[in-house]
Amino acid sequence: MKLTLKIWRQGGEYKKGQFVNYQLDQVSEHMSFLEMLDVLNEQLISQGKEPVAFEHDCREGICGACSMVINGHAHGPLQGTTACQLHMRFFRDGQTVTIEPFRAKSFPVIKDLVVDRSAFDRIIQAGGYVSVGTGQAQDANAIPVEKDQSSMAFDAAACIGCGACVAACPNASAMLFVSAKVSHLALLPQGKVEAKKRVLNMVRHMDLEGFGNCSNVTACEAECPKGISVDNIARMNREYLSSVFASDED
Amino acid sequence: MSWLSPALKPIGLIWFDHFLTSSLGKKVVMSLTGLFLIMFLMVHLIGNLQLLNADGGESFNKYTYFMTHNPLIKSISYFLYLFILIHAIQGWRLWAQNRNARGGQGYAVQVVRAVGTNGRVAARMGWLGTIIFVFLVLHMWQFWFQMKTGNVNMVLIGDVEHKDLYAPVVAAFSNLLYVIVYVVSMWIIAVHLWHGFQSAFQTLGLNHKKYTPLIRVLGKLYSILVPLGFALIPILVYGQVQGWWSVNLSLTH
Known about the structure:
The complex is a heterodimer of chains A (250) and B (253).
Chain A: E1 3-9, E2 18-24, H1 33-46, E3 69-70, E4 73-74, E5 96-100, E6 109-111, E7 114-115, H2 118-125, H3 147-157, H4 164-168, H5 175-186, H6 189-192, H7 195-208, H8 219-223, H9 231-246
Parallel strand pairs in A: 1-5
Antiparallel strand pairs in A: 1-2, 3-4, 3-5, 6-7
Helix pairs in contact in A: 2-7, 3-5, 5-7, 5-9, 7-9
Chain B: H1 5-8, H2 14-21, H3 23-48, H4 58-69, H5 71-102, H6 119-122, H7 125-148, E1 154-157, E2 160-163, H8 166-173, H9 176-203, H10 212-242
Antiparallel strand pairs in B: 1-2
């Protein structure tokens, strides 16, 4: 199939960017979206032009590196998948495909479609972990965990930290990401120990990074490649309120 | 840190100041003031329905007399004015912060996909709220300010002198332009509530598989029925004045 690609090109964080149109004549419907971009880059390199910079790593939908907004949707119009797992059969011959980087003040563009998402790493450093005393390996079943709780924790832990929630949110809010991390640890006995401190520190750091506030638009859940539910945001709100009003943490 | 910090710090409430200025705390303020305003709307509607009593405005004037003389209602009314202002000012501040968080460059292709709510409405609460605020200013000037400045006639009900608020209300509802402005504003309030009602509960963390479906249904019913009740009154009055129908409003007295 033939495609017109309208791609955001930007030389660096402080450089001015603009859309550039490219024609691709032989796109196989079996290609993944990133393979299609590889073909475009081969074409650009053979013409002596600068290839389009985009981030990718595992290409199997589990690392969350392939951050881009395709036709207005983070990771493309197909729900529940990452850009690398989106195949060209979901596009029509002759279609114009607009590809933009994630847009958020806290995710500055490094080059073309690559954005700096280290704000997420810093939020994790603020509390998205459990402190474990290293020593003898414990017996796996030493701490009983109720099945429904562990399932909910697992659903939240499915977050790959790709930042699609921030990209999709009209307010560029990071609530879904932070709430997934807060939830997956708070639901498990190992994480409960530091839960009160964790939620305060992570929310405080989220605010420091300059992400927007939550308006409960739920665009984050709709665009999340892992289908993380906004129920986690409600859980984080509960955790936060109980921590602020009923714990010693400040 | 907020403008309240100097007052909160000496009494050991600096943690509360941190809460108020956090992204979650700001939303809790929106949620609680919003829920108060939602409850007030119902009380206001029950009062307005007195306009439909065929007694030449007696029950409506008695209701306004009660609302302006009962000490409990009077003190609640000051909280009401305060909460409207807090909800509006906080809303505008959040709106500005959220726009800023997106950064200078927006998307070339804008789509809002949502789950269990109307994303287009949810993303436009700032605009909708601003229109409602403009309506409230007009509404307060037209009825509340006129009444407070004594710009209304007095009527005797029993032995007590009452301010005749019924006459200016009927006069306003006889004006087509005002009826249109009023009905359109009620529609905007309905849309604002459609998202706001259930959103307020989510913000407070009140999301539970046993109760959330009920909250969503109640929210939708409330956001349709209450504004509809408000909007019907000027339409009924206007139609009666025009002689389109007679719903026994006995508008003359």
